[in-house]
Amino acid sequence: MILKSTIASVAEAQKANLSVLELGLTRTALNKLPDITSHALIVSGVRRCGKSTLLHQLLREKHPDAFYLNFEDTRLYDFEPSDFVRLDSLVKDMGQTALFFDEIQIVERWETYVRQKLDEGCQIIITGSNASLLSRELGTKLTGRQITKELFPFSYTEFCAYRNIAPSADGTRDYMAAGGFPEYVKSGLEEIMHHLFEDILIRDIAVRYGVRDVRTLQRLALYLVSNVGRLITGNRLKTLFEAGSTSTMMDYLSYFEYTYLFHFVPKFSYSLRKQLINPRKVYAIDTGVVNANSGSFTDDFGAVFENLIFLHLRRNYKEIYYFSEKSECDFVVSEKGTVRQVIQVCYDLNHDNIDRELKGLFEAIAHFGLKEGTLVTFNQADEFERDGMKARVVPAHQYLAD
Questions:
Q1: Cα(286)–Cα(176) distance, rounded to whole angstroms?
Q2: How many domains does one find in the chain?
């Protein structure tokens, strides 16, 4: 139990700290957050991608008079569900209707209080680490009274803005090496990425889900981060890691996806069943994570580059597939069930691979009845036509900056 006066003093101190805190680069997502009161706004994303900073930027720039409280403050460790009565009394005394909560999920029955304030017409904005509560569970707790917006590490344009550089091949190379986690971009210390990787595995997955075989979980994560862009199946992973069952492997993959550590792209098919049974391609949340934690001793620029392009697509779309019929095409982007784009990725287009890359792209263009497709390279530009279809070859720094 905590006194109302204690909550008030903590809130006042936190607000004072925010007024002098250096918030760094203004995130692109800031102007895309909806201004709503009917639903709670939840900012979801991988650990350390900048969710709290985004909340602080929103608070400072658009809601300077809002009530703010970070529940991870040590002075609030004894906060109990019954203390929401004292918190609410404080909020009403201050006449606040815009409420910003960081890590409120660590307090039991928080959703009851949030639903109450929504019913009273208050505006609620929440962020929280996946160790506390996953975004999927937030929807259940709030019975649909929420809108979730995803936040990812720095995009290419944000990276260039932070480094104060223009988009270029050199910028692409630097971005591919460092990735977009703000702390790592700032410091360059690989230990940050090692700790982040381990924190997600232990705190966000093993502890939360009661994973007993932590060693296999770690080995699996290392294998995936070392094999981005490749096809995986639960059965193959079960055999490779001598796991008890395929379902155990599939559970681990689900945990990775829930925490945003890895994404698994299905093969395109109009049959949901085939999507589920076909192999999936694995991609990591960030190329810096790959470079710092991969167990591979070879520099596979092609795979990391493909991962980079996937992340650009994932920031903007959720329905992403790979195409594989007679030939292969890396990405198929669909919106509301309609295929909008096909994208092939090739780090260096040359005499040995040009026929294969264009064949896969043109086959995908024809298969989906499109007029053109895109082939993203590291630093090449060109254009090819075949049977009335067009393939645009675009350098990455141009593609990523669009």
A1: 9
A2: 1
